[in-house]
Design goal:
The protein is an alpha/beta fold. The protein has a single domain, classed as Transcription Regulator spoIIAA (2-Layer Sandwich). It is built from four helices and five strands. Strands 1-2-3-4-5 form a five-stranded mixed β-sheet, with helices on both faces. Helix 1 links the parallel strand 2 and strand 3. The longest helix is centred in the N-terminal third of the chain and has 18 residues.
Length: 128
């Protein structure tokens, strides 16, 4: 497993490759949260590549991630996956995240995910 987390123009771009275990998921999410908090960035694009789908959210520590995301209404997290199985799991994760009050959405393509991430930023800038 490896990952990269980079600051893009107006969001964090986190890419995860070859994740197999709950420990690897926890390692990735810990690094992602640390980077987001350090950079003060509230919009995150998570791209999952060549990884196992996640259906046991509590086992992977994702519920804690939801609680953090729900703690600040400006957090927006877009999920992308490279397989039908990962996308199905991300849709499930989206439903659970929303139940926790987190602003998380799963997408099939990057362009609509980025559009959604940027929509709130554009609206806040128009109000100024």
């Amino acid at each position: 497993m490896h990952y990269k987390i980079e600051t893009a123009d107006d969001h964090l771009r986190a890419e995860l490759f070859g994740r197999e275990t709950a420990e690897q998921t926890h390692e990735f999410l810990t690094a992602l949260v640390r980077k987001a908090l350090d950079a003060g960035i509230t919009h995150v694009l998570i791209w999952v590549h060549n990884s196992r789908p996640i259906f046991k959210v509590d086992t992977y520590g994702i519920s804690e991630f939801f609680k953090l995301a729900a703690s600040n209404p400006s957090y927006r997290i877009a999920l992308l996956g490279d397989s039908d199985e990962v996308r199905a799991a991300q849709q499930y994760v989206e439903v659970l995240a929303r139940q926790h009050g987190a602003n998380v959405r799963a997408f099939r393509a990057e362009a609509p995910a980025l559009q959604w991430l940027r929509a709130e930023t554009a609206q806040s800038q128009e109000k100024r």
